[in-house]
Specification:
alpha+beta; Serine Threonine Protein Phosphatase 5, Tetratricopeptide repeat
Length: 342
């Protein structure tokens, strides 16, 4: 079961996994090229072009189609260049399409069989997919592979993340962590706009934990089997609207993600989650006067719950939520992609 790391408002900025792992990968490629490139004395024109595409994508780091396209173009220009495969994996991880992210990380591993960074990402994908036993296996393997490399401060940070994940996934922690999630949602229900602003301006930590970043988990209550918002949630949405219009966030686009519990079919829950996200967007536009062009909507159905294996009605209820995510200035949010090359 995935349990998010609880971040308090004002928490110190964390290192971006994209920057950390990208730096490690670039260094590895510089010191020891993949087998397809063995013996090469100078970069080919194709490699230079492909590296330029990757650099353009890394300037964005917003999980947009544009960022993804740079990496896909790099792989087409130079099929033997491994790094854009890893970066494609990070894009799909950010889009919460963990299976497709895994696919790209696995392709990258074919070029870089000794990579331990990808082992960490395998663990993170498994954790988000609710495959606890596999997640524990990969996190342990990552820590074993990373031994002796702790001199680098950035790498040490992700060693710490893996150790924290193993502690979090231990059976003895499940009950206490469950209560922490419930308490977080209750706190969010009555949170004032200034504290919501602090959450929505937290640093984005690419590729680590799906709830660890500038995203507000809004425990909005709806009529049963309906997208109609109950009056008791209006105060939460009013405070959220004030936060979105705060000067700190006035240039940001926000993504409204709808989520359901696991009851019902995949197709029905996907449609219901989208309608509920659209209801929240409509309320923020009509009642809070948030400009509509600043809000994008996606329904995730039941595939991205806070509780992977809910044991009580309280946990089922916690999974029925709307997440509002700060995508940054001028960024158009995109849903998980389908049918892209992989």
């Amino acid at each position: 079961m995935l349990i998010p790391m609880m971040c308090e408002p004002g928490e110190k900025a964390r290192l971006s996994i994209a920057h950390v792992f990208a730096a490690v990968i670039v260094l590895a490629c510089t010191l020891s090229l993949p087998c397809r490139e063995a013996g090469a004395q100078a970069k080919s024109p194709e490699r230079v072009q492909a590296e330029a595409k990757v650099q353009e994508g890394m300037k964005l780091q917003d999980a947009s189609d544009k960022e993804l396209q740079y990496y896909l173009e790099a792989t087409r220009i130079d099929p033997g260049y491994s790094k854009p495969l890893f970066d494609c994996g990070l894009v799909f991880y950010d889009r919460k399409d963990y299976e497709l992210a895994w696919n790209y990380f696995d392709q990258y591993l074919g070029f870089e069989p000794d990579s331990f960074e990808v082992t960490y990402m395998f663990g993170a994908c498994c954790e988000n997919l609710g495959k606890t036993a596999d997640a524990i296996k990969y996190y342990k393997r990552y820590l074993e592979q990373a031994k002796g490399k702790r001199g680098d401060a950035a790498e040490a940070k992700y060693v710490e993340f893996a150790e924290n994940a193993l502690n979090r996934l231990a059976p003895s922690r499940q009950s206490s962590d469950s209560q922490r999630i419930i308490q977080m949602l209750e706190r969010n229900r009555t949170m004032k706009s200034e504290d919501i602003v602090k959450i929505l301006t937290r640093p984005r930590t690419r590729g680590v934990f799906q709830f660890d970043g500038p995203a507000f988990q809004a425990p909005i209550r709806f009529q049963y089997d309906s997208a109609e918002i109950l009056p008791e949630s209006h105060s939460t949405l009013n405070e959220l609207g004030k936060a979105i219009k705060d000067s700190t966030l006035e240039k940001s686009r926000l993504h409204v993600n709808g989520h359901t519990c696991q009851k019902g079919s995949d197709e029905y829950n996907l449609e219901l989650s989208k309608r509920r996200a659209e209801s929240v967007r409509a309320y923020l536009v009509e009642k809070a006067q948030v400009p509509p062009e600043r809000l994008d909507v996606t329904g995730h159905g039941k595939k991205d719950p806070l509780f992977k294996d809910p044991k009580s009605e309280e946990e089922f209820s916690a999974n029925r939520r709307v997440e509002v995510e700060n995508m940054g200035p001028g960024i158009t949010a995109v849903p998980p992609a389908a049918g892209l090359p992989h």
